[in-house]
């Protein structure tokens, strides 16, 4: 815990660290998304570090701290919150004639089961 002084230096120090943590988090998350799309796999910490300009140790420590914090639940809550937007986008693509999106939407709402290996529906 940071000891606050009368001039508020403790709060400023805490706020600066929090802003740094959040900036690092955004940079790391953006790099993970970009590299995952490019390489079609989850990136190595060295690749994340190179993409963000952070050290490998900073990336590693950030990921450890993120897993140990309640922020993981915050991220999951945000993802759940965005589910409706994702479903709307899938529906929009399906209505525009994207057959994969149409099939996915029908599977999500339970009209179609996932195909079995022999090609028959469940």
Which keywords apply here?
122 residues; mainly alpha; 2 domains; 6 helices; 70% helix; disordered N terminus
SSE order and pairing:
Elements: H1 9-39, H2 45-52, H3 56-68, H4 71-81, H5 83-95, H6 99-108
Helix pairs in contact: 1-2, 2-3, 5-6
Description:
With 122 residues, the protein is mainly alpha-helical. The chain has two domains: 9-70; 82-113, no CATH class. It contains six helices and no strands. It has helices at 9-39, 45-52, 56-68, 71-81, 83-95, 99-108. Helix 1 packs across helix 2 (45-52), helix 2 (45-52) packs across helix 3 (56-68) and helix 5 (83-95) crosses helix 6 (99-108). The longest helix is centred in the first third of the chain and has 31 residues, at 9-39. The radius of gyration is 21 Å and the shape is elongated. The model is unreliable at 1-5 (pLDDT under 50).
Distance between the termini: 55 Å
Total of domains: 2
Total of DSSP H or I helical runs spanning 4+ residues: 6
Structural class: mainly alpha
Computed over alpha carbons, the radius of gyration is 21 Å
Total number of beta strands: 0
The low-confidence parts are 1-5
What is the gist of this entry?
Helices cover 70% and strands 0% of the residues.
């Amino acid at each position: 815990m940071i000891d606050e002084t009368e001039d508020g230096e403790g709060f400023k120090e805490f706020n600066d660290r929090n802003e740094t943590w959040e900036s690092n988090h955004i940079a790391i998350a953006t790099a993970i998304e970009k590299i995952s799309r490019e390489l079609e796999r989850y990136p190595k910490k060295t690749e994340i570090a190179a993409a963000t300009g952070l050290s490998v140790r900073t990336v590693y420590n950030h990921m450890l701290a993120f897993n140990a914090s309640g922020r993981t639940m915050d991220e999951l809550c945000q993802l759940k919150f965005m589910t409706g937007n994702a479903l709307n986008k899938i529906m929009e693509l399906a209505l525009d004639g994207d057959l994969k999106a149409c099939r996915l939407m029908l599977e999500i709402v339970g009209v179609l089961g996932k195909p079995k290996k022999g090609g028959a529906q469940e």
